[in-house]
C-alpha cells in the first residue's frame, strides 16, 4: 500500500511561502521559515498543476525551470491537494483547518448545501467563511505594494475575497496582459509583492492527462512564460515559481462510479470533495457502516477514515471548531490509481483524465523554485 505523504505545515508547505516572502521583505513580525533571500521586491508565480515529480520527469521540455531545480526544493500542498484549498493556504499562510476551505466542494453546515469553492456557487459570505487576515493584508499594512495578477473574472469571485483580499487585483486574460501587469506592478512603491496565476497546465492535464504530449507542449509554454515573467521584473526582484498540487492520470477502467453502486451511496446524504479525495456526509448513525463498506470495496487502493481519524493525523492542520463540521463524516483518500467518480451527480468530473486531491507524492509534492536575478 502506498504510504500517504503528510503535509509539512509550519516549514515545508505551500502555506509557508507568503509568510516567508513577507519575512524576506522585512515586514515586522513575519518569519522567513523557508530561508528566502532578502529583497525589496518579490513576485510569486503559481503554475496550477505543476507537481514537483512532473517537472522532474519532463525537465527536458522546461529548460528555464529545470535550471532552477538544483537550488530549488519540494514543498507539500495541504490536504486535500486541490486548487481552492491550496490557493487559500497560499494567500492566508494557514492550513485548511484554520482557513476553512476544505475541498473542491464541501458542506455548508448551516444549510446542508454544497459549496463549490472555485465557482463559489452558494450564498456564503467569503469573509465570514474565511475570517482571518491574509498575508496580503499584513504586507499591505506594512506599506508594501501588493498586486494579484490573474484573469479578470476572478476579481469578483468569492475565492479571491477569501484568499487574496488585501491585494489589488489586476485583470489580465492573455499572456501579454499578465506580463504587462507584472512589469507595472513590480515597480510600484519602494517595495512590492506581485502574485501571478496561470491555470492552463492544470486545464490541459485534466482534459488530456499529465503524461500526454499536449501536457508537455503546455509545460514548454509555461516554462517560456515563467522566463518572460522573470525578464519583466526589475533585476533586484526575486521570482518564486510554485504550484498548488501535482497530478496523476486515471484510466476509465479504474474509476469507481458511486452512482452506479447502490451500496456506496447507502447512508449518505451528500457526496463532496472530488474523485481523488471524497468528503462523505452521512445520515445519523451511518458512519461506521459507510466506513466498513468503503474499506471492503476499495481495499488498499484508498485510505478510508472517520473525520476524527483524519483530523488526528494532522491532515488539515489544527482544525478550528467552526471548520470541523465542513469536513466529511467519512473521508476517502485514493492512494492507488483509482478515482471515485459520481457520474450522475458530477458528469463533467467523471470524464477527466488527470486528477489530484489525495496524499500521494505525485499529488502532494510541489516545487519551490527561486530566481534571485542578478
Structural class: alpha/beta
| Count of discrete domains | 2
- The radius of gyration computed from the alpha-carbon positions, rounded to a whole number of angstroms, is 20 Å
CATH topology grouping of the largest domain:
Alkaline Phosphatase, subunit A
Mean pLDDT: 96
Strand content: 15-25%
Secondary structure: number of strands: 17
CATH top level of the largest domain is Alpha Beta
Low-confidence stretches: none
Strand order of the largest sheet: 2-17-8-1-7-5-6
Helicity level:
25-40%
Largest sheet: 7 strands, mixed
The coarse silhouette is globular
Our measurement of the CA-to-CA distance between the termini, rounded to an integer number of angstroms, reads 46 Å
- Count, helices: 15
CATH superfamily of the largest domain: Alkaline Phosphatase, subunit A
CATH architecture of the largest domain: 3-Layer(aba) Sandwich
Q: How would you characterize this protein structure?
A:
It contains 15 helices and 17 strands. The chain has 374 residues and is of the alpha/beta class. It folds into 2 domains: 14-248 and 359-371, Alkaline Phosphatase, subunit A (3-Layer(aba) Sandwich), CATH 3.40.720; 252-354, Gyrase A, domain 2 (2-Layer Sandwich). The strands form 5 sheets. It has a 7-stranded mixed sheet, sandwiched between helices. Helix 4 (83-92) packs parallel to helix 8 (158-164) and helix 10 (200-208) runs antiparallel to helix 11.
